[in-house]
């Protein structure tokens, strides 16, 4: 690293402060030479996207200092707020010095397709990009019903190469990494992937009426069609770690120009 100081990495997630994947990512960042600080939701916050909600008492949001197994000397905080809230707070005066990069994960389950919009893991790095920080969302493809041990070590084997890509990218770059839950020796080469149409699964929501009144019932359904080649889902299914650059909030000019013919017709 060319700087006279070590780059600072904020490690967060949406699975919560007690997730082994979070601890593994923090260890990987430490071993890569980063100055590491860990701040993650005090409870599971999966599916919150880029929400900046927190549990407030007036204008206060509680945080709790923690010591994490295997990470002596690394400051860690359980925060009563969502991942993007944590990242946003780091850029609005909480952390000094501010982080240079945001690393989010390791999520237990892949984050694929345009459904990454709903991911708190991804939402954290998109929030960081608004502050001009590079960010990496890291996910391991462990099915929810899988009882096998997640192979965090496979992610850590891929991580150094991906961090090199991240640090060479422009400020504000947001990347999403998905890794197969296989032994490191069995995975394919790292591939750049475009987003699939949605993801590996979809949620079906039905309205049901019972003794407690009406309620919405959710059920996860796997996609029926085969994954499209070259997408994050297709490449991950074939055993490749996938890397995708995501674009955060930006404007797209020309909306009135595109509407001009129909407006003139009236």
TrEMBL record:
Residues 246-266 are annotated as: Disordered. Its EC number is 3.1.3.5. InterPro entries: SurE, SurE-like_Pase/nucleotidase, SurE-like_sf. Keywords: Cytoplasm, Hydrolase, Metal-binding, Nucleotide-binding. Coiled coil: none annotated. Residues 10-195 form the Survival protein SurE-like phosphatase/nucleotidase domain. Belongs to the SurE nucleotidase family. This is 5'-nucleotidase.
């Amino acid at each position: 690293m060319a700087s006279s100081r070590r780059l600072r990495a904020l490690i967060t997630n949406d699975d919560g402060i007690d997730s082994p994947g979070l601890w593994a990512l923090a260890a990987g960042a430490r071993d890569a030479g980063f100055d590491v600080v860990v701040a993650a939701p005090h409870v599971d916050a999966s599916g919150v996207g880029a929400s900046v909600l927190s549990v407030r008492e007036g204008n206060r949001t509680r945080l709790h200092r923690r010591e994490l197994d295997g990470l002596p000397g690394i400051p860690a905080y359980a925060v009563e707020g969502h991942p993007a809230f944590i990242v946003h707070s780091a850029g609005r005066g909480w952390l000094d010095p501010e982080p240079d990069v945001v690393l989010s994960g390791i999520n237990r389950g892949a984050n694929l397709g345009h459904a990454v919009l709903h991911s708190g893991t991804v939402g954290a790095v998109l929030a960081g990009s608004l502050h001009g920080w590079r960010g990496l969302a890291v996910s391991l493809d462990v099915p929810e019903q899988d009882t096998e041990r997640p192979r965090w070590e496979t992610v850590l084997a891929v991580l150094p190469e991906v961090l090199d890509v991240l640090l060479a990218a422009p400020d504000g770059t947001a990347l999403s990494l998905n890794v197969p839950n296989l032994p490191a020796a069995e995975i394919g080469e790292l591939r750049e992937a475009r987003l699939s149409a949605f993801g590996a699964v979809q949620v079906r929501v039905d309205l049901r009426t019972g003794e407690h009144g009406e309620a919405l019932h959710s059920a996860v359904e796997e996609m029926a069609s085969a994954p499209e080649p070259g997408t994050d889902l297709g490449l991950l299914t074939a055993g490749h770690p996938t890397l995708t650059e995501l674009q955060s909030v930006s404007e797209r000019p020309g909306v009135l120009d595109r509407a001009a013919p129909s407006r003139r017709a009236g």
